[in-house]
UniProtKB/TrEMBL annotation:
Signal peptide: none
SUPFAM superfamilies: PilZ domain-like (SSF141371)
Protein name per Swiss-Prot or TrEMBL: Flagellar brake protein
Gene3D superfamilies cross-referenced by the UniProt entry: predicted glycosyltransferase like domains
Domain Type III secretion system flagellar brake protein YcgR PilZN stretches: 72-154
Organism: Cupriavidus lacunae
Residues in PilZ domain copies: 162-277
Amino acid sequence: MIQLKPNDLPVGYPLPWSLLDGEGNLVLGSGNVIPDERDLALVFRHGVVCREDGHDDADDELRPATGPLGLQVGTLLHIKLDGEAARPAASRLIGFIEQGLFVTWPQLGGRDLPLKAGDAVLLRGFSGQAIHSFTSTITAVCRSPFRYLVLSAPVQQHATPVRKAARVPTRLAAYLTEPGDDDGTDTGAARLALLSDLSTGGALVQTTAPAPAPGSRLRLRFKLRTASLDSEVTLDGWVRVAAPGAASDDADFPAFGVAFDVLAERELTLLQCYIYEQLLSSTRMPLQPAAVAAV
């Protein structure tokens, strides 16, 4: 058996292997989902967690299945009625067949999106390499053993490539402090800052005070809203000179770049989810020829 660590397990996605205790007894079967970090901690609470020592080819077969457009089971989807300007609701791909998709019931702000069979919906999802936009029709509304939708095969497909270190424009308020030595405390008074650009590697920061010297250390505390939930994030980094641009040329609010330290698993996951959600929201499908002719 191979002993596992918490970072070895996917959170929010189907397990690629069955989890065993130190004696080889089943703890949780493959394909089940560990919903969040607290559930993950619970799994490891009372002893070691292992998986069987299988061949790599067998592991490949147990990885999350890939469906249409390269989207994996568990992929976050943004869904809204086709043609509506409202904010999209959040859903996840839970399965697929040759001519259709199975998705969880879309929710917006904790409420189910009112949908019915026959509705045309616009969906966006991230495959790891591109944002895929497509339309489908709800072919069935299912309520047992839980609420989910069956969708027709994707049509009017469009892919927008995403570079590896994707950046998104933001307007996030953050508190900027100087990190302490080793005890986790901050030194000096917190200053309000604005993050106008964000990636998993760093951010563009504006403040009312003079910009810190390049190479100096700082800490940023801010909240990210992902899947309608607010999570506080604390990131340490070092100051870099901002690239020339509109924000960095603002004399009243100096701008500077921040390069983040290596991110912990929680912070990395939250940042990735936030960035992908922003990319999903901002991606637009090009007008189809028929739509152009109708304008």
